Structure formats: structure tokens, C-alpha cells
Amino acid sequence: MPYTDMTDVALQNALVTQQSRLQAFTQRELSLNMARGKPSSAQLDLSLALLDTLSSTSDYYAEDGTDCRNYGVLYGLPEARRLMATLLDDDPEHVLVGGNSSLSIMYDLLAEFWLFGTLGSAPWNTLPKVKWLCPVPGYDRHFAITESFGMEMIPVPLSDDGPDMDLVETLVSDDDTIKGIWCVPTYSNPSGITYSDDTVRRLAAMKCAAEDFRILWDNAYCVHHLFDETDTQEHVLDIARTCLQAGNPHRACKFASTSKITFPGAGIAAMAASEQVLAEVASHMGVRTIGYDKLNQLRHVRFLQDAHGIATHMSKHAALIRPKFELVWSMLENGLKDTDCTWTKPRGGYFILFQGPQGTAHRIVELAASAGVKLTAAGAPFPLGIDPNDAFIRLAPTLPTEDELKSALEVFICCAQIACIEAELAQRA
Ligand code: PMP
């Protein structure tokens, strides 16, 4: 019976039952982690052959004859730019291959805007105020970057097809201190939604009071489909071409990496932008480095080869992680049917976004931690960690084994039930 229909006494009894179950879980001294979107070691094994593509006896030469052991080639090897262009849905000439992290390219880009401005605009640090649009729920590490520069972050609700565009258009049209927006267009972190073509067109064409308004288009999950059927796989209209057609050629900066394709932290990352913005980025980059790791670029090209190679490889990831998502969905469905909790069922990406009744997220995370299950901090998907309803929890099912995931979910469901009953009782008091 739904908790909302139960008598106070029945609810109290249900609470006692769940509390003693939690007690029993606590005695098992579990140590489980559903906090971060990391691949499992079985997923990492899929890329071990990447390490064999270069040994002391193989050749180290790129297709243009570059000796990859040596300095140079700031924009990246031509074949690596071609490979990353397939992820970025752009022309290789618009692509720059950086180091091991797309997040660090995003950070550096904003640091450059902050210190030097862009395409002749005033450095942002000289302005009295800089604001940034943050679709929520969103990615905590994006928000940490804009927070670190002291930008005022404006939360914008994210719905099933992207940010609330009526609100975005209104905000950017007459406030020139709003300098940009974070976007994760495909299988968004953490809600799993994918932007509609209409959203892309509106972002590209909207009138912005700030001439140097930038869309940071983070396509971290562009090939991370959970299901095979190609007709249901998400493919988002390209923001750069759409911006160009709308007369805003410099608005979009796109990012991707192989972090969740090969090895997180040991992959390759890239950005795409207009020729002028890319040249500006390269000019700053060239002060910072003589060039990135071309041996790793070569390894990635030899291992992944092209878009088809990436798709084949990603279907192996999907075969490993899809059962984990399905396990979470079926356990939540069975375990929480008496509550008002909801959760997402994304077609790709790395997360399930759980929503409990108002005021329960912190409590669930705290209870789970007491029983040895680490979850993403409540509030993490919001700027400054503040979820106004204290309702959302990001679940990351990829890292644990299926057995571990099952144990973690049993604890999670028990904690969610306790928090829901407590919230219902508090409401009645
Ligand atoms: N962007 C998003 C949306 C992510 O979810 C992640 C990883 N969790 C990253 C970027 C990090 O990417 P990288 O390893 O290339 O820095």
C-alpha cells in the first residue's frame, strides 16, 4: 500500500521494520561505492590491447612522418584530429587534440577568457560581474569550474529536451554580464536527457547581449549508448554548424574525450571551435606546452581507428553496463513502489537520476553512508551544491560488480524507504 494511504500506526511499524533492516545491513560492514561515474575494471580490460599498439619494436611515426616521441605538433596528429572529429561531429581542421582531460581544456578555456578575453573582448576579470547559466540538474565538476572563477551561477531548469529555452532566451537577451552556458547535449550528466534539434537551433540563434557569449558544449557521452538499436540512438544536431548558419560562428566550443571509451585519465581529449577561436586557444596553449602526448594519440588511433571502430568498441561497453542499469531499474521498481520516488531510464550515458520526496536526499545519502554505501553527495547536481528541494540523488551503477550493486541497492532502497516514511510522518505531525 502507498505510504501516503497508510495509518500513522502502520507507518510507524513500517519504519521500525526498515530501521531494523538497516541495522542488519550496518552489521555486515559493507564498503560499496555508487558515487562517481567510473568504468568497472571489466570495462577497462576492453582497452588493454591499446597498450600493445606501441612497443619498443613498433614504429612511432605518424602518417605525415612525425616522430611521435619528440616535441611538437600543437594541434595534435592529423589522424588523431580526424578520429576526435568523429566524436565532435566537426571537420578535423576545427579540432585541437589536447591532453588527457576534456575538463582541463574547459577550465583552461575559461581561464583564458578570464585573463585575456576572446576575439578582442575585455578580459572577464576586468568586469564588475560575470554570470554563467547552469542547466540543473547538471554536472558538479562544471559548476566547480565556474564557481572557482567567482562567476555568479544562474540555475536553469533542464527538461527532457534541454534547458528551459524560454528562460534562457529571456535571460541572455538583456544581460551582457551573462557570458555563457554549460551544456551536456547527449545523455546529460546526470539526468540522461538529450537535447532536441529545436533546443540546438534556439541556442544557436538566440540574441545575446554579450557579444562574447559562449556555449560550452561538452559531448562527454556522445557515443555512450546503452542499447543497440541504431534508430533509437541519440544524435544531436551539430551546434557549431547551426551557430554558423545563424550568424554566430564563434559561439560554440565543443569538447569530447576518450575517458569513458578507453582509460579515464589516460585517454585523449579534444575541442572543436571556429578557426579564429581555435587559433586563439592554440596561441595560449603554445605558451603552456610545446605539444601534448602524441604517443598516446597514436595508440588511440591505432586501437580505435575510426567512427566505426569506436562504435564497435562502445557496444562492448554497453554489453557490460546495460545489465547493471537494468538491475537498478528492476530493484527500484520492486523496492520503492509504495513511495513517491521516481528515477530516470536513460538510453545512454553513465547515470540514473533518482528523485525522492522533498527534503529526503540528504537523509538518504547520510543513512546509506552509515551502512557503508557511498553515494554522490546530495545537492551535487546543483551550483554550490544547493538542491532547493533536497530531492535529487545521482546514482552511478557502472563501477561496482553486479553483486556489489545488488547489495548497494538493497541498502539504498531501505534508506529511501526510511526517509520517505520519516518525511510522510513529519508532514502529518
Ligand atoms: N564532462 C562530463 C559531462 C563528465 O561526466 C565527465 C566525467 N565524469 C567529464 C567531462 C570528464 O571528462 P575528462 O575525463 O575528459 O576530463
From TrEMBL:
Record's protein name: Transcriptional regulator
Signal peptide residue numbers: none
Parts forming coiled coils: none
Pfam family, one: Asp_aminotransf
Top-level taxonomy: Bacteria, Bacillati, Actinomycetota, Coriobacteriia, Eggerthellales
Gene3D superfamilies per UniProt: Aspartate Aminotransferase, domain 1, Type I PLP-dependent aspartate aminotransferase-like (Major domain)
GO molecular function (one): L-aspartate:2-oxoglutarate aminotransferase activity
